[in-house]
Amino acid sequence: MFRLTRRSAQMQKNNRNKKKDGADGFRPVLFGGIALTVLLLFFAVIFSSQEFGPFYKLLLDVAGPIQKGTNYLAAPFHSVREKYLDLLTVREEKQRLLEELQKCRAAAYANRGAAALNARLRKLLEFKESSGLPTVTARIVGKDPSPWFRSVIIDRGLSDGVDKGMPVVTGEGIVGQVYAASSGYAKVLLAISPSSAIDVLLQDSRVRGILKGTGGNSYRLEYILKTVEVAKGDHVVTAGYGGMFPPGLPVGIVSEVIRNRRGMFLEIEVVPAVDFSTLENLLVIEQKKKEFRP
């Protein structure tokens, strides 16, 4: 009796398992059929222009919301993709504009440099034509960093007609004097060097003095008596004595006059007519002078 009851229970359990397996196998088929039907209707809606009956309209009402929902869900992804592409485009455009800006700046710097060089060369040419003196054009290729013996090296020498004792100028005024020369190069002692001394005149009063360098960008005008009227802004020019510099070349402008109680002479500071910090192209006046000893 017990065996029959146990066998009957086992048979019922097997039948339930078979039914469950059958149901589990039927579900994918059912869902696949529904999906296939919806897909066919979707393609029918898109590609067909024919009119169908009420059943088609019903299916169309079902497929429409599905398609609308799909587009609604996909819209944010399209928006994100478009924004990402726009961001990439903006970055590329920014990089391109930065490169163009750098090129424009470089061109602007080059143009300003060329304009400044052109202006300096024009002044040199004007001086050469107006003075009527034989000159040699030179370019600075080196500088002496010493503040007590300031000098520059130029790319002209004995083979170019440049010799010791020749004055050196720019279109603005005097620069210094050649004190050493080789076949291809020469060394120029700058007028602002403490080792330099030049005979000069106050242009208006014609009073003579000695101009000495300070080692910086200024001169001291010495041996001007207190009885002489000297004012800020007076022009100083070369005197031409001793055959060192031609007369009347610009030297500088009086920037300060000090009258001390003691002593016979004024203390006068002169600002150079030449900007020694931007020297580049020079003129050497081919005029034989006494040997210069700094």
Helix content: 40-55%
Shape: elongated
Poorly predicted runs of 5 or more residues: 1-5, 289-294
Q: Could you say which structural class the secondary elements and strand pairing correspond to?
A: alpha+beta
Number of strands: 12
The topology string of helices and strands comes to: HHEEEEEEEEEEEE
Q: Which architecture name of the largest domain does CATH use?
A: Beta Barrel
How much of the residues is beta strand, in percent?
A: 15-25%
Strand order of the largest sheet: 1-2-5-4-3-12
Oligomer state of the chains in this structure: single chain
- Count of DSSP helices? 2
Whole-number average pLDDT? 76
Distance between the termini: 141 Å
Instruction: Tell me the radius of gyration.
Output: 49 Å
The CATH class assignment of the largest domain is: Mainly Beta
Briefly note the CATH topology name of the largest domain: Thrombin, subunit H
Sheet with the most strands, sense and barrel status: 6 strands, antiparallel, barrel
Domains, number? 2
The CATH homologous superfamily of the largest domain is named Rod shape-determining protein MreC, domain 1
Topology:
Layout: H1 2-47, H2 54-131, E1 135-143, E2 151-154, E3 167-169, E4 174-181, E5 186-190, E6 197-202, E7 208-213, E8 219-222, E9 235-238, E10 250-258, E11 267-272, E12 281-285
Antiparallel strand pairs: 1-2, 1-12, 2-5, 3-4, 3-12, 4-5, 6-7, 6-9, 7-8, 8-11, 9-10, 10-11
Helix pairs in contact: 1-2
